[in-house]
Design a protein that fits this description.
alpha/beta; 26% helix; 6-stranded mixed β-sheet; 18% strand
């Protein structure tokens, strides 16, 4: 079957099925290959090159109920901070306005009590979560959103 019009070429049939089965309130997390996925989590592979294009391709198909939350790089590490800024820039280049994305930091052990970071937000079991693993070579190229209502 030829590629479907309007669907990102990195989204294969298996991924379409999983996205179709996702429900209102589920969490979708786009991750780079270096992200440590929780054991037993639902993971599907994106066949395209970047996390930014995966996120945009998914958002064209799946309604979002929340602001897109991206993983903020470690500001004390120049290399990771540069990678995080590069990801934000690539979101803009992929057609996703950077101001729609809210950075959420990775948290260290000395983080304030009660503060939530990206890992804590997406690795919890409170919400059914689908991890979309990309082939992005950029570290910290991770983003998440909550699936909205299909009737909107």
């Amino acid at each position: 079957m030829p590629p479907l019009k309007g669907i990102d070429r990195g989204i294969n049939g298996n991924m379409l099925k999983v996205l179709e089965e996702s429900g209102h309130g589920d969490r979708i997390v786009v991750i780079d290959p270096s992200y440590s996925v929780p054991e037993g989590a639902k993971v599907i592979d994106y066949q395209g090159d970047s996390s930014a294009s995966a996120l945009v391709g998914i958002l064209r198909l799946v309604p979002s109920e929340s602001v897109i939350t991206i993983m903020d790089a470690d500001p004390s590490n120049e290399v990771s901070n540069r990678a995080g800024l590069e990801f934000i820039k690539s979101l803009g280049g992929a057609g996703l306005m950077a101001d729609l994305a809210t950075p959420l930091p990775r948290l260290t052990e000395d983080a304030p009590v009660g503060q939530v970071g990206f890992y804590e937000l997406v690795n919890g079991i409170e919400v059914p979560t689908i991890f979309v693993r990309t082939r992005d070579e950029l570290a910290y190229a991770c983003a998440t959103f909550i699936v909205g209502h299909s009737q909107e």
